[in-house]
Automatic annotation (TrEMBL):
SUPFAM superfamilies recorded: Dimeric alpha+beta barrel
Organism, as annotated: Pseudooceanicola atlanticus
Stored Pfam families: DUF1330
Protein name as catalogued: DUF1330 domain-containing protein
The DUF1330 domain, residue ranges: 2-93
InterPro entries: Dimeric_a/b-barrel, DUF1330
PANTHER family in UniProt: BLR0684 PROTEIN (PTHR41521:SF4), PTHR41521
């Protein structure tokens, strides 16, 4: 079953986070991920608001988790750790 990678982000260092984004995109694509939302308009109805929201579609939960754990994504994540506050989850779709 396909899965969605859903990130809610507050960027605290735009330069470092930009480097993360440059590296994360190719890592996500390498694992079959495609972006369906990246920082677009949103309406916060509940919970903590984060100004940047990203959704990527993967072929499976396993593909998304493999991406997260990959050396390529972890190298990208090194730039985001001190440059953002974020939550990230993977959710299997019902398709």
């Amino acid at each position: 079953m396909p899965a969605l990678w859903i990130a809610h982000v507050t960027v605290t260092d735009a330069e470092s986070y930009g480097r993360y984004a440059e590296l994360a995109g190719p890592a996500i694509a390498k694992h079959g991920g495609t972006f369906i939302a990246r920082g677009g308009r949103f309406v916060q109805l509940e919970g903590k608001e984060r100004p940047r929201n990203v959704v990527a579609r993967f072929p499976s939960v396993e593909a998304a988790v493999d991406c997260y754990n990959s050396p390529e994504y972890q190298a990208a994540l090194d730039h985001a750790r001190d440059a953002s506050e974020r939550e990230l989850m993977v959710v299997e779709t019902s398709e």
